[in-house]
Write a structure and sequence with these properties.
seven-stranded mixed beta sheet, 18 strands, seven-stranded antiparallel beta sheet, alpha+beta, about 625 residues
């Protein structure tokens, strides 16, 4: 008998239906030579400190650092988990072969490997690796099963991530709580983590920049000529006297156009969605929290209408291209008008979309081609984003003319730029919601701005003006901008290509960033005000009290993240990564225990709202 194990009951039912395993049993389905069972996410976890040594049960500085050798796993202490594990164990003990049908990613690999380790599996194990749950994808996956050993490096990376989080989280949380915590009834420990602490540090740093910001005045010199506002090329005048001198100089003098230049440009369609960019757009457009978007796109995946969501690439592999006409045809009923220009010819194939070298385990999030039915409002909104993005990449580039007009008055140079869209191209796909999109939406960043027809050498009267303005502080993080900051290890990156390259060193993984933000809310380290994120007093003081940059540096955490990716690629040693984490924690314990200060971190009570989100 072949035993298949999936990550959720719903996924198991889909796989069982394809395999013909239709007989229902307690905890599994059977038929056609298969038994299909499931986990509920993690059934197993790394052992608790007290599982290794009794003295580690009590929190004591003298027992730190806790560094188990070797690490072990345990079954979660949950009645439902224990009951399902007994079913899995009885099936696997009798199995001739096991097929790991867990989610095709690092976490999915870890979940099922731990279960099989706990059971003590000795029979051959195969791996199902699919990017969607459609019947076609499942059948193709079973025709091309991999040997489980092919994904060993994926498991090693996941195991290193779990061990690193345990070593740092368990030790640093006890260390900082015992050394700097308030203690007392109802006061939670000071939670410190490999990803959550650098993320909190980003928010605190931005908050301090805002709090300490001192506005400074500056002056902008402009003039209106032929109902068009030209701005002085000098830019900001920081000295008022200098600005007024320039104003007086040009007052009463004619304005002369010195240059008119038009340059044609092309704008390629936006990149396909990875999980982070989808979460960013859903936060901007709909106010969805990152975890809400993840749950919705996961639901669309399980309903067979979208591909695997926990991805960090915006590319498709070349073998997807022949399937694209069928995918478009499957969703055409909802987008008939947009499909019309794509009919009757070959679909465009751009290297900015199809590039197998940019795809490892999974491609970008796209529709599967299954027509969506029975979607709720949130699912319909997210599916529409994914569908339109996919449709748009087959449209031609947007073609536009940028006209730059330069002029001068009394030797003071001015300039204005205008933009005229010649061919809308892919932007047609987004015309439906121009009025509802956020001002900072990428598809609206270059609004058309028409200029009169200027001629070089023309001259005439103008109306100069001088405006006093004040510098403004940086904006607080929203979930959208925080996700981008996590993706680029805290660096401000607007360029899409550069952002893609920096994903290697981002903090956290696309699949875990939403959970990290939720943890900060749950610990009462951050709060939400409208769409802006602010650190609570506890969050601020925790970051202030951590002097060890290794714990709160987004850049350093990003380097650890890259090492985990390199372990997955077999270019970095897993054992070396774990040893580095242990050495780092040992050093931190020594430094903190040696701190002679008597500082304590404030506690943010539950009465302070740390989370307030509108129900969608």
């Amino acid at each position: 008998m072949t035993v298949c194990i999936a990550e959720k009951p719903s996924v198991a039912r889909d796989i069982a239906a394809v395999l013909g395993a239709t007989a229902q049993h307690q905890g599994y389905m059977e038929g056609n030579g298969y038994q299909v069972t499931w986990t509920f996410g993690h059934l197993c976890e790394l052992k608790y400190p007290e599982d290794y040594h009794e003295q580690w049960k009590s929190w004591s500085l003298s027992q730190l650092p806790m560094l188990p050798r070797p690490f072990g796993i345990r079954l979660k202490n949950d009645e439902g988990v224990e009951r399902q594990f007994k079913v899995i164990e009885s099936l696997m003990k009798k199995a001739d072969c096991i097929i790991n049908c867990g989610d095709a990613g690092q976490e999915g690999e870890l979940i099922q490997r731990w279960v099989m380790q706990k059971v003590g599996v000795t029979c051959p194990v195969k791996r199902l690796w699919i990017s969607s749950l459609t019947e076609e994808a499942v059948r193709e996956g079973f025709r091309n099963l991999e040997d489980a050993s092919k994904r060993d490096s994926l498991y090693h990376a996941g195991l290193c991530r779990a061990i690193g989080d345990w070593v740092l989280g368990m030790n640093a949380t006890r260390l900082y709580t015992l050394k700097y915590g308030r203690g007392g009834v109802g006061v939670p420990p000071l939670s410190v983590g490999r990803v959550q602490t650098p993320t909190l540090a980003l928010i605190v740093k931005r908050q301090r920049e805002i709090e300490n910001f001192v506005p400074e005045p500056y002056w902008v010199l402009a003039t209106e000529y032929r109902n068009t506002l030209f701005t002085a090329q000098k830019g900001k005048y920081k000295n008022e006297d200098e600005a007024r001198e320039a104003l007086e100089k040009i007052t009463g003098c004619p304005f002369t156009v010195t240059s008119v230049a038009t340059k044609r440009g092309r704008e390629a369609p936006l990149k396909l969605y990875d999980l982070t960019s989808l979460q960013v757009d859903c936060n901007k457009k709909f106010g969805f929290a990152a975890d809400v978007t993840l749950n919705v796109i996961q639901s669309l995946y399980e309903k067979h209408v979208a591909t695997y969501p926990r991805v960090d690439t915006t590319f498709l592999s070349d073998d997807i291209y022949p399937k694209c006409p069928g995918i478009l045809g499957g969703i055409a009923a909802g987008y008939m008008e947009l499909m019309e220009p794509l009919r009757g010819g070959m679909l465009k194939k751009s290297k900015k979309v199809f590039d197998s070298s940019k795809v490892t385990d999974h491609h970008a999030i796209i529709p599967t081609g299954v027509a969506p039915k029975g979607l709720n409002d949130m699912e319909a909104k997210v599916f529409d984003l994914v569908a339109r993005r996919f449709i748009s990449v087959f449209y031609p580039d947007c073609v536009f003319d940028t006209t730059t007009v330069e002029g001068e008055s009394a030797d003071v140079p001015f300039k204005v730029q205008g933009r005229h869209i010649v061919e809308e191209g892919w932007r047609v796909v987004y015309n439906h919601d121009k009025k509802t999109q956020d001002d900072d939406d990428e598809t609206q960043k270059d609004e058309e701005r028409l200029l009169p027809d200027f001629v070089k050498g023309e001259s005439g009267p103008h109306r100069p003006r001088l405006s006093k303005k004040m510098t403004t502080p940086p904006k607080p993080y929203t979930e959208a901008t925080l996700l981008r900051a996590m993706e680029t290890a805290g660096k401000t990156v607007d360029n899409e290509e550069l952002r893609e390259a920096m994903k290697e060193n981002g903090i956290g993984r696309p699949s875990t960033r939403a959970a990290i933000i939720q943890t900060l809310f749950r610990r009462r380290y951050i709060r939400l005000e409208r769409k802006s994120l602010y650190a609570t007093p506890t969050g601020c003081e925790l970051i202030d009290i951590i002097h060890e940059e290794l714990l709160k540096s987004a850049e350093l955490t990003g380097l650890w993240e890259k090492k985990l990716r390199d372990i997955e690629r077999k270019t970095y040693d897993a054992g070396k990564f774990v040893e580095e984490i242990k050495q780092m924690v040992t050093l931190i314990v020594k430094q903190v225990i040696g701190d002679p200060s008597n500082r304590r971190v404030a506690f943010t009570p539950e009465s302070v709202k740390t989370k307030k989100r509108a129900k969608q």
